[in-house]
């Protein structure tokens, strides 16, 4: 799930700081206001992650401020084994730190990029594209199996909550004579 906000008028901006740190565009972090160009940034982060197996900035960091600093200051780099020039090109354009220059600043520029040369966006919008990969049916989890697993997880979670609550109550038990000194 993501978040969305309607921006009024052309050039509208929002200043809400929201998002998963590794996927946040520099303009969100710096608080300068942003619009739809942050989505192009996030597409670039996802594409980098799909192709390279990790996010481009602060992969091992958990501290949001460390992640933000890398996003703002560090130039993008690629693993030495990643040689696909057209993909590097589109990722670099999507991860341009200047929002207005990010892949031409529009979705039409994204769709016109050579990387999507053979992709039919009209068929996509009409839901007429066939998936290039469909997992085998025997590898999919059935609804019944999913429901069993979910019930088991809920049971375990509820049991852990009870145990923690009992432990908390024992630790925080109030001395019935607490007010004798007054």
Automatic annotation (TrEMBL):
Protein's UniProt keywords contain Cell membrane: no
Transmembrane segment boundaries: none
Domain called AGC-kinase C-terminal: residue spans: 117-182
MF term (GO), any: ATP binding
EC number annotated for this UniProt entry: 2.7.11.1
InterPro entries cross-referenced by the UniProt entry: AGC-kinase_C, Kinase-like_dom_sf, Prot_kinase_dom
Record's keyword annotation contains Disulfide bond: no
GO cellular component labels: cAMP-dependent protein kinase complex
Gene3D superfamilies xrefs: Transferase(Phosphotransferase) domain 1
Name this polypeptide is given: Protein kinase domain protein
UniProt xrefs under SMART domains: S_TKc (SM00220)
Domain Protein kinase per the UniProt entry, residue ranges: 1-116
